[in-house]
Amino acid sequence: AVHADCMLGTRLPACMATSISQEAGSWRDLPNFPELVAEASLRKYKELPKRGKPKSDEEWTPLATVLCSEGMNVEVVALGTGSKCIGQSKMNKEGWIVNDSHAEIVARRAFLRYLVYQLKLAVQFESSIFVPVSTNDCDGRSNELPNMYILKPGVVFHFFTSQMPCGDASIFSLSCNEGSIKGNVRKRQQAASTCEPIASKRNKISPDSDQDTEFVHKSVATSIVLTTVQTESVCACEHPHLRDLVACKSHADSQSSTEFKPCRDGDLDVHRTGAKCVSGGLQDPKLPGVRYHTVGTLRTKPGRGDPTLSMSCSDKMMRWNVLGCQGALLAHFIAHPVYFESFTFSGPLLNSRSIYRALIGRIKSTATSTKECHIHCPEIFCLSSDTLSATSISGLMEVFNEVTYSEIKKLAPAAICWYVGHDSEAIVQGMRQGANTRRDPCRKTRLAIQCLNL
Q1: What is the pTM of this model?
Q2: Could you tell me the pLDDT band of residue 366, with boundaries at 50, 70 and 90?
């Protein structure tokens, strides 16, 4: 069956509300690119109507966006918010309920609608990011392949989210938090003073290396850490990657050529995820401290009550780096997979090592050994919450607080979906806000990102 599911550095002028525009070059030439991406995302969120947004000072919601860059012009093209998921008893086989309303997944599904919109423009010979695929025959003449399109040269996509994705990426040592939550971390976090750095020569690693490595690009807001780790899916208490879970570091020390000894087992704890290991695979041992979780395994979405069948955001985002994010349906019309060239993460709880492990590292080692698939290695940027909130940008601080994790606020019950060429929609319990939940929605009350409309 075809199924399509699957902050702030440099200030921008007001006239560039949700885009970053330069005349020449590429997005890599933009100074403070991750901060600019975060700012453009917040500005677009601010422009949307209040419907579906959190209540001020009472609720918060994760935010995710997809941005398109052509040269040095970067624009938000799809946006999603939300943190809810439908239990398996409420799933609908006809496809008129959105099972997964986490921000990252809503944004990606909105991005699918954006791609459909752009394909329609291309078919109608209007301005589009797609161009027909052409081949040269034996006489050297160019022939277009029917119903097949590719992205225009220079068009690439980027992904931004205001929190760590649920699942494997959220498992990391609390002492290695790069988000600087300013004391808002759980009380079981302990001081990192028991770890002693060991001077050593650090290997230079590239993202295309055949080694099983952890490689991450981070903005100037945080330090760069390159280290070699193992990524097989085994219990953390027996796994060589345990050293990464209990390793401590500081931004100052990480600038020098040092690696860190693991702390004693009882000294630290890990940030725990509510995502549950899939049945039939390795399970969490739930032992004290860093041995609570299994790392690298597949998980379903966190939640209480009726269990969900939706996979965690970490697992879905890992899949995007293998199959592309265009989905099975659009693969019939887009000649090549559509990948995100960069991922930008912000918030008070961050760890670049666990992000790399979850999105790239754990599948890269398998693909390298079997040589059965291509693994796309995007650049990964991490922006600490302190760095973003410390930057004064008029009118965005309230928005920043709405989409930033807080232990004293509740998660908003609704989600928001938006993409270029369509108005924003509010999602409640997998359906459009206001729709009659006792019967199938009519065309006017269907969500744009429902499977029926994709």
Answers
A1: 0.77
A2: confident
DSSP 396: T
Burial class (CB in 10 A: 0-12, 13-18, 19+), 346: buried
Beta strands in 309-444 (DSSP E): 340-347, 379-384, 410-411, 415-419, 422-428, 431-432
Spatial neighbors of 331 by CB under 8 A, at least 6 apart, are 324, 337
Query: Phi first, then psi: what are they for 114, rounded to 5°?
Result: -65, -40
Per DSSP, the three-state class of 279 is: coil
Query: Residue 88 pairs with which residues in a beta bridge?
Result: none
Helix-, strand-, coil-residue percentages of the chain, each rounded to 5: 25, 25, 50
- Helices marked H in 52-187 — which ranges? 103-123
CA dihedral sign, ordered 169, 170, 175, 177: positive
For 55, the token pair is 């209540």
Amino acid identity of 442? C
Identify the active-site residue in 35, 39, 104, 379.
Answer: 104
Q: Which of 106, 12, 124, 20 is nearest to 70 (CA)?
A: 20
Strand segments (E) across 333-413: 340-347, 379-384, 410-411
Is the pLDDT confidence value at 100 over 60?
A: yes
More confident residue, 447 or 60: 60
Higher pLDDT among residues 130 and 263, named by residue:
130
| Structure tokens that stand for 408 in this block | 């004293």
Torsion angle in degrees (nearest 10) through CA of 101, 117, 54, 300? 10
Helix (H), strand (E) counts: the chain: 10, 23
What SS3 state is found at 69?
Answer: strand
The full DSSP string for 120-133 is HHHHTTSS-SEEEE
Q: 57 in the Ramachandran plot: left (φ > 0), alpha (ψ -120 to 50) or beta? A: left
Instruction: Tell me which amino acid residue 228 is.
Output: T
**Cβ atoms within 10 Å, residue 140:** 6
Average pLDDT, the chain: 74
State how far Cα 106 lies from the chain centre: 11
104 an active-site residue? yes
> Residue 433 — pLDDT band, cuts 50, 70, 90?
confident
What is the rounded distance in angstroms from the CA atom of residue 2 to the CA atom of residue 62?
Answer: 28
Strands 59-60 and 410-411 come out as: parallel
Q: Average pLDDT for residues 343-366, to the nearest whole number?
A: 90
Q: Is the dihedral of CA 114, 129, 164, 349 positive or negative?
A: negative
- Contact assessment for residue 5 and residue 113, using Cβ atoms and an 8 Å cutoff: no
